[in-house]
Design goal:
The protein is mainly β. The protein has a single domain, classed as Beta Barrel (Porin). The chain is about 10% helix and about 55% strand.
Length: about 250
Amino acid sequence: MKNKTIRVSCLTALLLAASHPAFAAHPLVTDDAGVQGSGGMQLEMNTDWSRQDGNAAHVGGLTFTYGVTDKLDMFFNLPQTFQAPSGTGVGDVSVGAKWRFHEADGLALALKPELFMPSGDEEKGLGTGRNSMALTGIASYETGPWALHGNLGLRYNRFKLESDREGQRKTLWRASVAVAYGLNEQWRLVADTGLAQNPDASSRKLPSYALVGAIWSPNKTVDLDAGAKFGLNKAEVTRQFGVGVTLHF
């Protein structure tokens, strides 16, 4: 029973994390409407350490993005759990696209569909065991050194295990906003906040968070980042710290 409870808790945490866009510029949770441009490529690698309910976790992710056209990106995301009470391993990998369908007067709008494939071990709480899907609406507005981003997302989960079908919500919504301020050409300060539907079907409490961080771009090829995330209630991760590197080609 204890192992089952731990596995369910880990799956709940995984679904909560996976409801956030994999393609958001780390350390942000909120995605932006930017795309790579035709032929552009981006490789993002990040890792985060977190604690919730006395349990420590360490996860990482690798996302590769390719600009198909000036308005359309395709991406592949590989999540990895390095430390968790229920076990470690690869999570549910995903593929998706970002289509920026509007850009004028500093305002950009985009849609991002995503398909999750059952590569994670559902017995360890690392995946759902079935294909799942998500759709995120993105709005970005830039003026001077300021950039404001907003997301509305919906994810539909399919579960292999009966216990997950009974205990986890199939449909999850989320909403978040982020702001970035460019100090100069190399440094950006970022802040992010949001809330989401609780994956645990027995709870109505909405996990919510606040995040602060910084991104350093020593040149046009490399971005280095760090951020700290704090839960605003007990349904969210208590605290999380992460670092990442992004390469542009």
